[in-house]
Amino acid sequence: MRLTFLGKETQGGGSPTLFATDRQSYVVQGWKVSERTDCVEIPQRLLGHLEPGTCVGGSLRDTGRGSFVLSGQPVTDHQVLKQIAMPDHETCVEVTKKPAPTEGSGTVAATAG
Q1: What is the pLDDT of residues 75-111, one digit of tens each?
Q2: Most CB contacts within 10 A, which of 9, 23, 64, 86?
């Protein structure tokens, strides 16, 4: 999997980062969520780095403190992990890249653009 850096939101001793992949997905680096390997916590502002007209295909839960918990597939490929500078308190998940919903579709999603 090839990663393209899209943006970073450094805060609170972490470096949540967003990457696009060559597989029509995003890899999202964020803070570990206790006892969950399929989730990361990210600052809400990180989603501002999504490619225009897209949204994440994973489930987002608002923490009420300026961050989301995002669920996705844990990234375990060692070649991919070698491309990411990740401290011990962080992990990353892969989520599908979806087209942003059109206005009036009744769908709510975190989007950019």
Answers
A1: 999 999 999 988 899 999 999 999 988 776 554 455 5
A2: 9
